[in-house]
Design brief:
6 helices; 0% strand; mainly alpha
Length: 147
């Protein structure tokens, strides 16, 4: 049996984009959950749709990271993030994300990270480009991956 970073009964909680960002970069110390960014496929394979959910989170975080880098508020080392730094970064990035990707979505602050509107609008904006999909096509505007 493999030692796992997540408890056997773990369920990814319902989260807004901001809470996803906190959990991705910092985790939950109170519940002894590591930053989601540190989780690999083997860490979530015991969860229902675990790797699928993790991959979607990674895509959304790729967009958030791209916007944070564009605004020079991204920290390279995962260990340097804490809740205060995530909050400061989010205050800068959130208005940009809302303006670019959530133009027609009502209740922007309450919209969960996996909402269909978020996914469709971000996909239309080509924000989820993967470096894997861009190889050999001569395009350099792919999203930088955190993990």
């Amino acid at each position: 049996m493999r030692l796992n970073a997540l408890p056997q009964n773990f369920v990814f909680p319902r989260m807004t984009r901001r809470v996803l960002t906190e959990n991705w970069l910092v985790g939950c110390v109170k519940s002894n959950i590591p930053p989601f960014a540190t989780l690999g496929p083997k860490d979530v394979c015991h969860l229902p749709s675990g790797n699928n959910v993790r991959n979607k989170m990674k895509c959304v975080m790729g967009v958030i990271e791209k916007e944070a880098r564009d605004k020079n508020v991204w920290m390279e080392k995962l260990a340097d993030w804490n809740l205060e730094r995530v909050t400061k970064m989010w205050c800068v990035v959130s208005p940009v994300i809302e303006a670019k990707y959530l133009k027609d979505v009502k209740r922007k602050n309450e919209a969960g990270w996996p909402s269909a509107e978020w996914h469709l609008l971000a996909t239309d904006a080509k924000a989820f480009r993967s470096s894997r999909n861009q190889r050999g096509k001569g395009q350099s505007d792919s999203v930088v991956q955190l993990v």
